[in-house]
Amino acid sequence: MLTLQQTSALSGHRPTGFDYLRILLAVFIVAWHSVSICYGAAVEKQYFLPMRPLILTFVPAFFALSGFLVAGSLFRTSHLPSFLTLRALRIFPALCVEVVISALLIGAALTTLPLNEYFASPMLHKYFLNILGIIQYTLPGVFADNNTNMVNGQLWTIPYELECYIAISILYVVTLHRRPRTFVVLLALLTVAVTVRSFTKDLGEFNFKPSGRCALWSFLWGVALYTMREKIKHSTLTFVACIGAAWVALQWREGEYFASAAIAYITVYIGLIDFRKTFVLRAGDISYGIYLYSYAIQQAVYQLLPEHRAWHENFAISLALSCCVGYLSWTYVEEKVLNRKRAALAFVKSVTDRLSAALPRRT
């Protein structure tokens, strides 16, 4: 039986599974949001109650996927400033464009306020803090009559994603990546401890939104799988067992942290499969664009097309539009920025080299 590393090598370490999984998870999240946008959070619970364990895997799976791939990026780069530069180039340019479009185009077009009041509103000015990861969900007079007035409800994950990068940077600095067994044992013990502690606390209502810390935990398990990729097997039996374990654990709110390890293995197992490349991947990596724009698009579709307020209609229309916008975001923003990453990395390396040379050396 092949290890995770050997399975990855079969595709030249470029398996398509992760690419398909990113898009599929983005589509699932659009479908999930369509119910709460069309009917409200209360109805969402009735609609999806039997599928709650499945829904609670969507966001953690995204984070586990990120943990596995980001760990690979960091360990290949072996230079923390360069790694953080790559992460910033991947996240912030597209996020910045989306925030500006939401505030100055979508918001201005759909607000119920006079435009002079809209542009003078402190709420609008605060909205630009989203670019820094300080999340603001609403714009003045926008979507005020919808079931929720949030413009970008999906952005709640951004601060936790930034925490993930801080966490992996700390792990790299303390060289835990060179002691993968120690890292995995510590993470496993902490997972058990946090799960046990969860049973002694009031965790509030068990809904369809995983906790941010649980998403962070899934990221760490993704990192752990990468550090142990030469030892852990790519096993169908383990994959099936993890599906069962995650489904059982997610019957209770207290099981979220315990389920994160299983979700991470499920994600990596699928991600390392090299499926045949189709037109879906030839469009580029549109998953981030779908994530960034879909919520605002769904809200606009709900407001502007009152005759199509069934969740499946909102989903179909919004997904088609989100894929188009995701393609534009990839083609004209994300890809163009990433094409300049060599120059950015060279600049960062030169700066860090000069700083290193300027620091006094130990004798």
What share of residues is helical?
55-70%
How would you sum up the global shape? Answer: globular
SSE run: HHHHHHHHHHHHHHHHH
Instruction: Classify the oligomer.
Output: single chain
Integer-rounded radius of gyration: 21 Å
Number of helices: 17
In the predicted model, the low-confidence regions spanning at least 5 consecutive residues are none
Q: Please, what is the average pLDDT?
A: 92
Task: Sketch the major β-sheet.
Answer: none
User: Using DSSP, what is the number of strands?
Assistant: 0
Instruction: Provide the number of structural domains.
Output: 1
Describe the structure.
The protein has 363 residues and is mostly helical. It has one domain (4-276, 285-344). The chain contains 17 helices and no strands. It has helices spanning 4-9, 17-39, 41-48, 52-55, 58-77, 80-110, 115-120, 122-127, 158-173, 180-198, 212-227, 236-249, 256-271, 279-282, 287-304, 311-338, 341-358. The relative contact order is 0.17.
What keywords describe this structure?
363 residues; mainly alpha; 17 helices; globular
